[in-house]
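Notebook B, p. 112. Complex prediction, attempt 2.
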Amino acid sequence: MRSPFVVPVVTTFFLLAVLAHLGFFDWARLSRGFRNLSILGADMVPPDLGILPVASAALWETVEMSFAGTLLGFLASLPLSILGTRRLFSTWVSSLARFIAAGIRTIPVLLWAIVFVILVGLGPLAGTLGIAAYTVGYLAKIYADLFEGTDPEIMEAVQSTGASKLQLVRFVVIPEAANAVLAQVLFMLEYNIRASSILGFVGAGGLGFVIQIYLQSLDYRRLATVLLLVLVIVLLMDGISAWLRKRFLLSANAG
Amino acid sequence: MTDNGSAPAALHAERVWFSFRNHDWVLKDVSLAIPASKHTVIMGPSGVGKTTLLRVLAGLLKPNQGQVWVFGQPTEELKPRELSALVGYIPQQLGLVRNLSALENVLMGALGRLADSRALLGLFPRDEIEKARAALEMMGIGHKSSEQVFRLSGGERQRVAIARTLLQHPRIVVADEFASDLDLALASEILTRIRRAAEQEQITFIMSMHRMGLARQFGDAVLALKNGELVPGFIGNEILETPSIEASL
């Protein structure tokens, strides 16, 4: 009989080996890190609020990119996810749709931004398209799985009224998944706001460009201001999505 | 196709065998004729194949062997919309969309008649909306038409499900364990309303039930199913007078 300790012991050894390989037991280096952190922290205080007008404009661009990118990605993900629902379409149609979504999702958002900088040039348009592309890949997969989980009894009952496939999607599949559809798009919006604040690193517009300049010029007091702005906008988004959830989502035990 | 002699059969099954993915037979050689404009109850303990039989009769499952006719037409030759004009189906859990209102759920009964373009935008013709409201009124739930279904009680949901099927204008309604979860008084009230609606619209009702009292009240005829087979001798009105049916199930 297999000992109950085999799995925990092997896992622990594996974890320690990986940590050692990654440099986690290099105490000198780690202690230097803590020292540098305190220096960096001291260099960031007090934040330089003089750059607020410049940073705010960049921040607004980031927010615009996130909203537009999330919305475009969401709209494009709906048809793709419906095609990817095995219960509605044949295996090869749904497999093809899922394969496309997986392909899009494989490429990180930063790489998508680079691709679109090459395609449409520098600026927020490339960033928006990059966010939209990543959002499509992510939401199409989540939504297809969600739609597949639709209660078969409801599908059958409405199908027996003579409803067409499109009518089933409109009146059963999407309304039944509405809570999760909204929750996921809000999550994606929050994620995109954080993600898009670094897209400027590759020239795709928004706050990232400003962050990169202050990082390279070691201007940590200005950097601190920008990071605080990001914190404010993320908290604000949390508040807005919490309100939206409360306003539109049904209670989890409903039904 | 054979005739049982008296009224013409609304639904007729001949030597139906059914199994899921070639496992054990769920239905074994079931032949029956459901008289038109009557209420037929299929009784039997859970797990004997009542739901499967109803789904086969409603044309939702294709039998492995044998055939089912709806008013003389083989179900497998009917297109989904043709079938939906003849047979309405209410599953055990009712199959209502919880996030939509009672009225929207009822309107789904009209989908088989409507073109995609307008219905997809949620634009239902005014006369269909009027008919949907009337169906809810008839079931005694007109005042809750704009409530979302997940806010409704069990009895109210049953009424919405029936109203949806009425809007479909089928000639036959197949309902699985309808009103089984309700207390006797409420179930009885809802079934009375169904009888009234069915008589008005000349609808043939087929319901599975496990409560003898309700079956007695509602059914014109009772069929008994046991281990996927019809219990012989339990077809017809006389069964309602036979006290031994419960013992034999």
